[in-house]
């Protein structure tokens, strides 16, 4: 039902778990926003009694992307519907080359908070996914994607360096500091893909807001994250693929292969240590690319 101002009003009766120590007997939804105060027009509201399960959040998901790069709108719609059917109603899209703004007009699809398109070093990320640039262009591209996204920018913080034969940091400290400062000036936060240890200290000290995967956290960097409130999204469903990735690259890049296995083997200890230190930890599946959509419900207990 709608009130006299045309707003949709719904009354929900039942035990509402507001927090660990707060329970209420009802709530009101006014044009989709929850309030615990009786709104004007409440006498015209529809009342429902029972229970409701809030939608899940996937904090690292890619709508509009598959293993080959950007996809068409029909495929992106199917991805979003798959996530919705698994219970996801809010997605933080951690980088996509596709324009999915049309999803915002669909009330039947999850809400998406976008990070623009990935920003990576030249030839150091998955083909067709990212803007592949050199450090001198980083600030300009971060500004561009800050304006394109919904308050987030996604960097590729490390990737295999074929000359070194292992994971190495992608960006010099000075350039990444300037880029993060520019994003913050524009009102956006910055997150970065990071598997290894090397890039983490520079990124945190440069002011980054979040790290994706974060398998390289150590006793030295965990306190820095906790002190500065830098969040992590471990994506353990992605990290579960590390042994297969390592096996595929072992002949050509043995150091990288061994490193990936080490990161995999200590993954649970790493996330536990981060959580115990007070680092904010969020659930993310890394759906899109090579991973299926709709996995968040089964993965939430283990991030």
TrEMBL record:
Residues 52-291 form the Amidohydrolase-related domain. Gene3D superfamilies: Metal-dependent hydrolases. One of its GO terms (molecular function) is hydrolase activity. SUPFAM superfamilies: Metallo-dependent hydrolases. Keywords: Hydrolase. The keyword Hydrolase applies. Pfam families: Amidohydro_1 (PF01979). This is Amidohydrolase.
């Amino acid at each position: 039902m709608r009130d006299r101002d045309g707003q949709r009003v719904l009354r929900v009766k039942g035990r509402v778990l507001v927090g660990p120590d707060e329970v209420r007997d009802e709530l009101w939804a006014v044009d989709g926003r929850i309030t615990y105060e009786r709104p004007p027009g409440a006498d015209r509201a529809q009342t429902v009694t029972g229970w409701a399960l809030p939608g899940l959040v996937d904090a690292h998901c890619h709508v509009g992307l598959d293993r080959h790069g950007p996809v068409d709108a029909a495929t992106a719609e199917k991805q979003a519907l798959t996530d919705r059917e698994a219970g996801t109603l809010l997605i933080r899209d951690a980088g996509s080359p596709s324009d999915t703004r049309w999803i915002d007009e669909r009330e039947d699809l999850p809400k998406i908070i976008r990070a623009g398109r990935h920003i990576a070093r030249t030839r150091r990320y998955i083909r067709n996914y990212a803007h592949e640039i050199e450090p001198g262009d980083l600030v300009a591209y971060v500004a561009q994607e800050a304006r394109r996204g919904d308050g987030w920018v996604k960097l590729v913080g490390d990737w295999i360096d074929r000359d070194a034969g292992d994971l190495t940091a992608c960006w010099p400290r000075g350039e990444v500091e300037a880029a993060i400062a520019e994003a913050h000036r524009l009102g956006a936060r910055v997150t970065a893909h990071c598997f290894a240890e090397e890039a983490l200290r520079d990124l945190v000290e440069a002011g980054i807001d979040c790290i994706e995967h974060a398998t390289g956290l150590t006793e030295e960097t965990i306190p820095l994250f906790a002190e500065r409130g830098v969040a992590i999204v471990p994506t353990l469903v992605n990290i579960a693929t590390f042994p297969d990735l390592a096996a595929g690259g072992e002949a050509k890049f043995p150091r990288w292969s061994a490193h990936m296995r080490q990161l995999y083997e200590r993954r649970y200890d790493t996330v536990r240590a981060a959580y115990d230190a007070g680092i904010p930890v969020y659930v993310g599946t890394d759906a899109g690319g090579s991973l299926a959509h709709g996995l968040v419900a089964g993965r939430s207990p283990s991030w």
